[in-house]
Amino acid sequence: MRPAIRGLSFEFSRNINVQQKIMKKYSVITLFIALAVCVSQVAQAQGNKEANKLSREGAEASRNQDYDKGVELLRKATALDRKYASDLAVAYQQRGFASARDQKFEEAIADFNEALKIKPSESRIYEQRAAVEMKLRDYDKALADYSEAIKLKPNEVRYYLYRSYIYETKEDIPNSMADTEKALKVDPKNAEAQSRKARLEAKQAAAPPPVNSPPPRPTSSKSP
Length: 224
Known about the structure:
By secondary structure, the protein is mostly helical. Among the domains are: 48-120, Alpha Horseshoe (Serine Threonine Protein Phosphatase 5, Tetratricopeptide repeat); 130-206, Tetratricopeptide repeat domain (Serine Threonine Protein Phosphatase 5, Tetratricopeptide repeat), CATH 1.25.40.10. 79% of the residues lie in helices and 0% in strands. The chain contains nine helices and no strands. The longest helix is centred in the first third of the chain and has 62 residues, at 2-63. The termini are far apart.
Protein backbone atom coordinates (compact mmCIF):
# COMPACT_ATOMS: atom_id res chain seq x y z
CA MET A 1 0.00 0.00 0.00
CA ARG A 2 2.82 2.44 0.78
CA PRO A 3 4.13 2.82 -2.81
CA ALA A 4 0.63 3.58 -3.97
CA ILE A 5 0.22 6.16 -1.24
CA ARG A 6 3.57 7.74 -2.06
CA GLY A 7 2.58 7.87 -5.78
CA LEU A 8 -0.75 9.41 -4.93
CA SER A 9 0.91 11.93 -2.65
CA PHE A 10 3.37 12.87 -5.39
CA GLU A 11 0.60 13.26 -7.95
CA PHE A 12 -1.46 15.39 -5.54
CA SER A 13 1.56 17.58 -4.82
CA ARG A 14 2.24 18.04 -8.53
CA ASN A 15 -1.40 19.06 -9.13
CA ILE A 16 -1.15 21.60 -6.33
CA ASN A 17 1.96 23.12 -7.92
CA VAL A 18 0.26 23.33 -11.32
CA GLN A 19 -2.76 25.03 -9.80
CA GLN A 20 -0.54 27.48 -7.97
CA LYS A 21 1.26 28.35 -11.20
CA ILE A 22 -2.05 28.86 -12.96
CA MET A 23 -3.32 31.07 -10.11
CA LYS A 24 -0.14 33.14 -10.25
CA LYS A 25 -0.51 33.54 -14.02
CA TYR A 26 -4.12 34.70 -13.71
CA SER A 27 -3.20 37.00 -10.84
CA VAL A 28 -0.61 38.71 -13.05
CA ILE A 29 -3.15 39.02 -15.90
CA THR A 30 -5.77 40.42 -13.50
CA LEU A 31 -3.24 42.91 -12.17
CA PHE A 32 -2.42 44.11 -15.70
CA ILE A 33 -6.13 44.49 -16.51
CA ALA A 34 -6.74 46.44 -13.32
CA LEU A 35 -3.79 48.72 -14.06
CA ALA A 36 -5.03 49.28 -17.62
CA VAL A 37 -8.50 50.18 -16.35
CA CYS A 38 -7.03 52.60 -13.82
CA VAL A 39 -4.86 54.26 -16.46
CA SER A 40 -7.88 54.53 -18.78
CA GLN A 41 -10.00 56.08 -16.04
CA VAL A 42 -7.28 58.57 -15.15
CA ALA A 43 -6.83 59.50 -18.82
CA GLN A 44 -10.59 59.88 -19.23
CA ALA A 45 -10.81 62.05 -16.13
CA GLN A 46 -7.99 64.24 -17.42
CA GLY A 47 -9.64 64.39 -20.85
CA ASN A 48 -13.00 65.38 -19.34
CA LYS A 49 -11.32 68.06 -17.25
CA GLU A 50 -9.61 69.49 -20.33
CA ALA A 51 -12.83 69.24 -22.37
CA ASN A 52 -14.73 71.12 -19.69
CA LYS A 53 -12.10 73.85 -19.67
CA LEU A 54 -12.18 74.16 -23.48
CA SER A 55 -15.98 74.23 -23.46
CA ARG A 56 -16.10 77.07 -20.93
CA GLU A 57 -13.55 79.06 -22.90
CA GLY A 58 -15.40 78.40 -26.16
CA ALA A 59 -18.72 79.53 -24.72
CA GLU A 60 -17.08 82.67 -23.36
CA ALA A 61 -15.53 83.45 -26.74
CA SER A 62 -18.90 83.05 -28.46
CA ARG A 63 -20.54 85.36 -25.92
CA ASN A 64 -17.87 87.92 -26.79
CA GLN A 65 -18.73 87.39 -30.49
CA ASP A 66 -15.35 85.84 -31.24
CA TYR A 67 -17.13 83.09 -33.13
CA ASP A 68 -14.10 81.59 -34.86
CA LYS A 69 -12.36 81.04 -31.53
CA GLY A 70 -15.55 79.73 -29.97
CA VAL A 71 -16.08 77.16 -32.70
CA GLU A 72 -12.46 76.01 -32.62
CA LEU A 73 -12.40 75.56 -28.83
CA LEU A 74 -15.72 73.74 -28.78
CA ARG A 75 -14.59 71.51 -31.63
CA LYS A 76 -11.60 70.46 -29.51
CA ALA A 77 -13.83 69.95 -26.47
CA THR A 78 -16.19 67.75 -28.49
CA ALA A 79 -13.27 65.66 -29.77
CA LEU A 80 -12.44 64.87 -26.12
CA ASP A 81 -16.03 64.43 -24.94
CA ARG A 82 -19.07 64.10 -27.21
CA LYS A 83 -21.37 65.62 -24.61
CA TYR A 84 -20.20 69.05 -25.80
CA ALA A 85 -21.40 68.41 -29.37
CA SER A 86 -24.65 70.25 -28.72
CA ASP A 87 -22.71 73.35 -27.61
CA LEU A 88 -20.62 73.10 -30.79
CA ALA A 89 -23.81 73.05 -32.88
CA VAL A 90 -24.99 76.23 -31.17
CA ALA A 91 -21.63 77.87 -31.86
CA TYR A 92 -21.96 76.99 -35.55
CA GLN A 93 -25.44 78.50 -35.56
CA GLN A 94 -24.23 81.70 -33.92
CA ARG A 95 -21.39 82.08 -36.39
CA GLY A 96 -23.71 81.26 -39.27
CA PHE A 97 -26.20 83.89 -38.16
CA ALA A 98 -23.42 86.47 -37.83
CA SER A 99 -22.12 85.61 -41.31
CA ALA A 100 -25.62 85.95 -42.78
CA ARG A 101 -25.98 89.32 -41.07
CA ASP A 102 -22.75 90.40 -42.74
CA GLN A 103 -24.04 89.03 -46.07
CA LYS A 104 -21.45 86.25 -46.11
CA PHE A 105 -24.13 83.85 -47.24
CA GLU A 106 -21.99 80.95 -48.42
CA GLU A 107 -20.07 80.92 -45.14
CA ALA A 108 -23.36 81.02 -43.25
CA ILE A 109 -24.71 78.02 -45.13
CA ALA A 110 -21.48 76.10 -44.48
CA ASP A 111 -21.89 76.64 -40.74
CA PHE A 112 -25.55 75.63 -40.78
CA ASN A 113 -24.52 72.49 -42.66
CA GLU A 114 -22.07 71.64 -39.88
CA ALA A 115 -24.70 72.32 -37.21
CA LEU A 116 -27.13 69.98 -38.94
CA LYS A 117 -24.54 67.19 -39.00
CA ILE A 118 -24.60 67.35 -35.22
CA LYS A 119 -28.31 68.05 -34.71
CA PRO A 120 -30.20 66.79 -37.78
CA SER A 121 -33.53 66.92 -35.92
CA GLU A 122 -33.33 70.61 -35.06
CA SER A 123 -35.99 72.40 -37.13
CA ARG A 124 -34.63 75.83 -36.26
CA ILE A 125 -31.39 75.14 -38.16
CA TYR A 126 -33.31 74.20 -41.31
CA GLU A 127 -35.23 77.46 -40.97
CA GLN A 128 -32.03 79.46 -40.58
CA ARG A 129 -30.44 77.85 -43.62
CA ALA A 130 -33.61 78.34 -45.67
CA ALA A 131 -33.62 82.06 -44.83
CA VAL A 132 -30.09 82.39 -46.25
CA GLU A 133 -31.01 80.35 -49.31
CA MET A 134 -33.86 82.76 -49.94
CA LYS A 135 -31.37 85.62 -49.85
CA LEU A 136 -29.45 83.79 -52.56
CA ARG A 137 -32.72 83.23 -54.46
CA ASP A 138 -32.11 79.50 -54.26
CA TYR A 139 -35.81 78.90 -53.77
CA ASP A 140 -35.82 75.16 -54.43
CA LYS A 141 -33.33 74.51 -51.62
CA ALA A 142 -35.25 76.85 -49.34
CA LEU A 143 -38.46 74.94 -50.09
CA ALA A 144 -36.71 71.67 -49.25
CA ASP A 145 -35.45 73.05 -45.93
CA TYR A 146 -38.85 74.40 -44.91
CA SER A 147 -40.34 71.03 -45.85
CA GLU A 148 -37.86 69.33 -43.49
CA ALA A 149 -38.72 71.83 -40.77
CA ILE A 150 -42.43 71.09 -41.25
CA LYS A 151 -41.79 67.35 -40.91
CA LEU A 152 -40.11 68.00 -37.58
CA LYS A 153 -42.68 70.56 -36.37
CA PRO A 154 -45.92 70.11 -38.31
CA ASN A 155 -47.83 72.54 -36.10
CA GLU A 156 -45.49 75.50 -36.60
CA VAL A 157 -47.51 78.11 -38.52
CA ARG A 158 -44.42 80.13 -39.40
CA TYR A 159 -43.00 77.36 -41.57
CA TYR A 160 -46.16 77.06 -43.67
CA LEU A 161 -46.25 80.82 -44.16
CA TYR A 162 -42.63 80.99 -45.31
CA ARG A 163 -43.09 78.08 -47.68
CA SER A 164 -46.29 79.65 -48.98
CA TYR A 165 -44.41 82.90 -49.59
CA ILE A 166 -41.75 81.08 -51.64
CA TYR A 167 -44.41 79.33 -53.71
CA GLU A 168 -46.08 82.67 -54.34
CA THR A 169 -42.73 84.17 -55.37
CA LYS A 170 -42.37 81.32 -57.85
CA GLU A 171 -45.91 82.06 -59.12
CA ASP A 172 -47.00 78.62 -57.92
CA ILE A 173 -50.37 79.84 -56.72
CA PRO A 174 -51.98 76.41 -56.04
CA ASN A 175 -49.18 75.27 -53.70
CA SER A 176 -49.03 78.70 -52.08
CA MET A 177 -52.76 78.52 -51.40
CA ALA A 178 -52.43 74.96 -50.06
CA ASP A 179 -49.81 76.05 -47.50
CA THR A 180 -51.87 79.11 -46.59
CA GLU A 181 -54.84 76.85 -45.89
CA LYS A 182 -52.64 74.62 -43.72
CA ALA A 183 -51.48 77.66 -41.76
CA LEU A 184 -55.09 78.72 -41.20
CA LYS A 185 -55.99 75.21 -40.10
CA VAL A 186 -53.37 75.47 -37.36
CA ASP A 187 -54.16 79.12 -36.55
CA PRO A 188 -57.53 80.22 -38.02
CA LYS A 189 -57.07 83.83 -36.88
CA ASN A 190 -53.57 84.32 -38.28
CA ALA A 191 -53.68 87.77 -39.91
CA GLU A 192 -50.83 87.13 -42.35
CA ALA A 193 -52.42 83.90 -43.58
CA GLN A 194 -55.80 85.60 -43.97
CA SER A 195 -54.26 88.45 -45.94
CA ARG A 196 -52.31 86.08 -48.19
CA LYS A 197 -55.39 83.96 -48.86
CA ALA A 198 -57.33 87.03 -50.01
CA ARG A 199 -54.43 88.08 -52.24
CA LEU A 200 -54.09 84.60 -53.74
CA GLU A 201 -57.82 84.37 -54.38
CA ALA A 202 -57.64 87.70 -56.24
CA LYS A 203 -54.76 86.37 -58.35
CA GLN A 204 -56.67 83.21 -59.13
CA ALA A 205 -59.72 85.22 -60.20
CA ALA A 206 -57.64 87.49 -62.44
CA ALA A 207 -55.66 84.67 -64.01
CA PRO A 208 -56.48 83.92 -67.68
CA PRO A 209 -58.00 80.51 -68.42
CA PRO A 210 -55.60 77.68 -69.30
CA VAL A 211 -54.30 77.74 -72.88
CA ASN A 212 -55.77 74.35 -73.76
CA SER A 213 -59.20 75.04 -72.33
CA PRO A 214 -62.03 75.11 -74.91
CA PRO A 215 -63.48 78.52 -75.74
CA PRO A 216 -66.81 79.33 -74.12
CA ARG A 217 -69.82 78.33 -76.17
CA PRO A 218 -71.86 81.19 -77.59
CA THR A 219 -75.28 81.60 -76.04
CA SER A 220 -78.08 80.59 -78.37
CA SER A 221 -80.52 83.34 -79.27
CA LYS A 222 -84.02 82.63 -80.42
CA SER A 223 -85.32 84.68 -83.33
CA PRO A 224 -88.49 86.61 -82.59
